[in-house]
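Researcher: Next sequence.
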Amino acid sequence: MAIPLALIGVIWGHRIMGIQFTLPSMLGFVSLAGIVVNDSILLVEFVIKRVAEGLSVHDAAAKASFDRFRAVLLTSVTTIAGMTPLLFETSLQAQVLNPLATSIVFGITTSTLLVLLVIPSLYSIPEDFGFAKAQQHAPSA
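Model: Next structure:
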């Protein structure tokens, strides 16, 4: 689910910058997908860990977003800071890489916000409909 969320930022980034979606844009999206998937995998891993500790799925999802917020944000900010100079470079040589940088910068910006909000929400929906139940641990003697 994280990859389509990143695509939202890629499409809007190209529209805002007035750049056509080209092959370098697609390469940027592929590299972006790897970064975004890592963030969402870690988030889901923390949800599973918190559920195993006895929290409800809703509480576990909220706690996981809170626990991973700093790590996800720092990963995203450092990538954005590293790619921003290339995004605004005007030299002829950089024109080939501008679509790649646009995909990465805008995709990461959007996906960072959406992964921290949407993924935990989507993880909680099956419990709302009764399809998944949080594991209850029996008290140990």
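Model: The helical segments are 2-17, 23-52, 57-87, 98-128. Confidence is low (pLDDT under 50) at residues 136-141.
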